[in-house]
Amino acid sequence: MNETTREDAVLVLLDVAARIERRLDNALSMTRGISFSEYRLLKALAGAGTRGVMRVDLAEAVGLTASAVTRALRPLEKIGVVATEKHERDARCSLATLTPAGAELLSDAERVVADGLDAIPMKGLSLERLVALQAELAKPRQAPARRGMIRAHRDPTSGQEGAS
């Protein structure tokens, strides 16, 4: 795949993901009063069981920063679907758990998401290939290759040109 085709493929993939997220977000907000991001947080909390999840781990699970998770959990705490146990020194290490009301909301929201997914044409997409791509993207990044480009720059202190 050449560079232009690869870039086009990524842009299409991102557009598809954004459109799916918007559809699910609209359906959830209209019927259950939560966003798709909040749904993902509830889903991740449910997967942790009663032991709870540190906010940094929750952030990793849903692709947000720890501070974004902290901000996103506040309204969920206010409506009683999430409980948090504060860490004495670091808010990112606070444990969040799903309450019984949260489990009920999640169950309702899962049906909304399932209905929304039924309306999305996914023929020809392979879950295995998408999961493989996800796993590949989750690996630590290596320094990008420098595509043979060497730029000349002028060292401001010496006035001489060099390569970078």
Written account of the structure:
With 164 residues, the chain is mainly α. It has one domain: Winged helix-like DNA-binding domain superfamily/Winged helix DNA-binding domain (Arc Repressor Mutant, subunit A), CATH 1.10.10.10. Helices cover 57% and strands 10% of the residues. The strands form two sheets. Strands 1-3-2 form a three-stranded antiparallel sheet. Strands 4-5 form a two-stranded antiparallel ribbon. Helix 3 packs across helix 4. The protein is globular and about 50 Å long. The chain starts with a helix and ends with a strand.
Please sum up the structure shown.
With 164 residues, the chain is mainly alpha-helical.
Helix and strand sequence: HHEHHEEHHEE
Strand order of the largest sheet: 1-3-2
Summed over residues and divided by their number, the pLDDT gives a mean of: 82
**Rg calc:** 22 Å
Number of helices: 6
Q: Uncertain runs with pLDDT below 50, 5 residues or more? A: 146-156
Q: Estimate percent helicity.
A: 55-70%
- Please write the CATH class name: Mainly Alpha
Can you tell me the CATH topology?
Arc Repressor Mutant, subunit A
Strand content: 5-15%
Protein name: HTH marR-type domain-containing protein
Domain HTH marR-type: 6-142
Pfam families: MarR (PF01047)
Region (Disordered): 142-164
